[in-house]
Give the backbone structure.
Amino acid sequence: RETMQVPRDGPELFLKHVGQVVVVESRTFAPAMDQRPIQVNDLPPRLFVASAGAHEQTEGRRFEKIRVRGNCANYPEAYARLLNHLGRFAADFDHRPDAESILEDSRAIWLKVGPRGEQGLAEVLCFLGMNAQNKGNLDRAESFHKEGLAVAQRCNHHRIIAGTTMCLGMIEYHRGNFSRAMDLYQQSRDVAQRAGDLLLISLAGENLGELLIQQGSYDKARPLVERGLEINEKLQFRFGLAATWIEFAEYYRHQGSYVQ
């Protein structure tokens, strides 16, 4: 049987222990808006050795500095899942130039894992697309997202389908294809509602609301923005709350209500 070729000494990761789950977080920024808990049984204890004296306090959260060591080849899926998150944080929060190479390493492992790794593959393709979007390479981003969407549809993963569809909508928005962007935002919101994913319902709805505001469809936009505010308050998602209040400001500005 082929042995997975992964490093014996992997990158440093930052983990937060919450009950029975371990959540990958950024050391220098707030948690990713779509972070997904990684089950403890996905992370065999033999895979980790904690660095001594590496505890930090940041905004009331306690982080533990972990270095992946040894036995990585025995747990390719757990290692690839960690690379997914590390690459995402490297791209979004630390702006590290090696973000894409980290994500490509993860992609290679998921491809070797085969059909049972399709969810992880779809996720890393979404992150690769987002990284390309952040750099302004819309064509490359679109290619990653379309490939990831096809994989997510095969494994029927609604969260990734909704998120990737929303990213494709953002690409069309930046190209000036507003009608197509609105269709994709609506599709994303519909899938997120079926999946019960509140955060994606809010994000897709707010993107759709922004376009409706720009087009003067205020009656259609307001319920979407209000729903986003309600969800962000429920989730205590401060970044989302700030973005929603800004969107409310735009809602009033476009109508000439400058005091509000």
